[in-house]
Amino acid sequence: MADIAIAPRRAKTEVREATSWDQLKHNRNWLGFWFMVPAMAFLILFLAYPLGLGIWLSFTDTKIGRVGQFIGIENYEWLWDDAIFWLSVFNTLLYTFVASAIKFGIGLYLALLLNENMPFKAMLRAAVLIPFIVPTVLSALAFWWIFDSQFSIISWSLKHLGIINQNINFLGDTTWARICVIFANIWRGVPFVAITLLAGLQTVSPSLYEAATLDGASRWQMFRHITYPLLTPIIAVVMTFSVLFTFTDFQLIWAMTRGGPVNATHLMATLSYQRAIIAGQLGEGAAIASAMIPFLLAAIMVSWFGLQRRKWQQGENND
Amino acid sequence: MSSVQIRDVRKSFGNFEVLHGVSIPIEDGEFVVLVGPSGCGKSTLLRMLAGLENITSGTISIGDRVVNNVQPKERDIAMVFQNYALYPHMTVADNMGFSLKLRGAKPEEISTGVKRAAEILALTPLLDRYPRQLSGGQRQRVAMGRAIVRDPQVFLFDEPLSNLDAKLRVAMRTEIKELHQRLKTTTVYVTHDQIEAMTMADKIVVMHDGIVEQMGTPLELYDTPANQFVAGFIGSPAMNFLKGKVKSNGSAGFEGPNGVKLPLKTAPANSEGQPAVYGVRPEHFTIADDGAEAEIVVVEPTGSETQVFAKLGGEQVVAVFRERHQFSPGDKVRLKPDPSLVHLFDETTGKRLNG
């Protein structure tokens, strides 16, 4: 053994200078770049390119069947004086704020409820998810029937109870139509908020509540001083997503009201679709869609600053 | 400060009874350690004392007041949790002052209370930090600070040291004991570590399977364990147990496994020929010519003492010597238990037989 160890070792191959290709092969950044290419290609092709094209189209007078000319901000000037566009902006903001606020309220309430120990907990948690897993168009069609002017089950029930004499024109009256689409959106959006907040609630250690009990906290004080502050990071995430989804909602409105009656439920997304695809005014439709960008960016900025790691989350990770 | 009386307390979860009638008197200012293996019910009992669990039957009183139906916050107790349960979004000062804040104390009052507790525990420089920025030992101290701020009748500790490393645990042990000597507040401390129990307690309560096996001062438990469980649980290395029967031949004696002769000071009355368990602590063996022959298996020197594992009558026993004998595995030695310090237990019930 000793002999072998002492014998000088001969290099197996001649030592050669590392070529630039060798260096490149071992360059982590170069390798990393190639690993990123598939994902990047996907994002560029299906996200960045359509976004760029949409913004470009909004500066042209493209119609279906006609290549457009660059017309600068003419489309936007046109929209600036368009009452229907401004109505759709108002509708979108109303829809987003009312629906998101109520979704947050109900979602948080449901999450707190489902976090309690109660019989059939697992089943109830699963049941909450149902509105979320039903395809949007399907649930929209169901709501369409529920709110039908002739066959609405709500009108039918109220009539039989003797509360009203004639059917409520749910989707034909501007106020009712707005209430109905907001209701449908809430129904669909609550599970996402509730389940995500429930996940957040379950990360709160039960011993914190026990400590708070001994410290003399009432149930409201526990919520106010323990649950809510510990939940804020996840609330910021979930509400950002909820606002983005609601703001860009299209399916539900299109399936239920197509923006009617008298544009009372037209959102920017549905108006854009109507102008661009139905009416063929691609340039103008693209301008409406592009007009959503500042609003969405604002929502993202709010959450960006809201999501900054709080001071208490910094430092080492072990508990 | 207050005394605590636990009288015939039972606890069931559904049909499963985990505490079968536990009675523990705790005097004003006493440091009582509940010790026992996992699942013995010690933590459950502590949580019942805190009001975090309902009492199925029996009574618990703090001072003169039965607290069975008193809300946790009305019981005037403070608890230190195993995982500290510090509020992660509050600074050390806010954590410590939270109970005062909930009580509606004035800001000056809160800051005075927090400062006082912080001084006691040397936490003053850390008051503005968040729990995440603290080390394990510092968090432990904050958890104690939170308890001290409230100036409660009773402190409850639920395995507070088990998340710390060995060295810190020893240091915190001393710190908690010192704190108790200073504040003299009645303390109930739960642990599974018998060394913690021995070093800190005024009174140890050994629990096992939902009953109290024995209570007494640390040395009482060590010197005269009431049964085989307590004898085996208290002391490290654990007591050696040898099965056999009482066999006096002129003088009192015991016949161990494979006919090994072991000395007894006095045989219990009417015990001749009765099967029993002979217990001897590792440090009560000596090397003597009239000892029983044993073969050394392993020698473990620790510096201050040497642990010797040996086969005695086919059974493995451990002996501890302060002297530095030159042993090596395979050596034959004559081990003699000190007859005045051996214990004799009933083979079936495990009860202590000799006085």
From TrEMBL, chain A:
The chain crosses the membrane at residues 30-49, 84-114, 126-147, 176-199, 228-247, 286-307. Keywords: Cell membrane, Membrane, Transmembrane, Transmembrane helix, Transport. CDD domains: TM_PBP2. One of its GO terms (biological process) is transmembrane transport. PROSITE patterns: ABC_TM1 (PS50928). It is found in: Cell membrane. Its main location: membrane. It is a multi-pass membrane protein. Belongs to the binding-protein-dependent transport system permease family. It comes from Bradyrhizobium lablabi. It comes from the Bacteria. Residues 89-305 form the ABC transmembrane type-1 domain. GO terms for cellular component: plasma membrane. This is ABC transporter permease. It holds the Pfam family BPD_transp_1.
UniProtKB/TrEMBL annotation, chain B:
PANTHER family: BLL2173 PROTEIN, MALTODEXTRIN IMPORT ATP-BINDING PROTEIN MSMX. One of its GO terms (biological process) is carbohydrate transport. InterPro entries: AAA+_ATPase, ABC_transporter-like_ATP-bd, ABC_transporter-like_CS, ABC_transpr_MalK-like, ABC_transpr_MalK/UgpC-like, Mo/tungstate-bd_C_term_dom, NA-bd_OB-fold, OB_MalK-like. The keyword Transport applies. Residues 4-234 form the ABC transporter domain. The lineage of its organism: Bacteria, Pseudomonadati, Pseudomonadota, Alphaproteobacteria, Hyphomicrobiales. It comes from Bradyrhizobium lablabi. This is Sugar ABC transporter ATP-binding protein. GO terms for molecular function: ABC-type transporter activity; ATP binding; ATP hydrolysis activity. It is found in: Cell inner membrane.
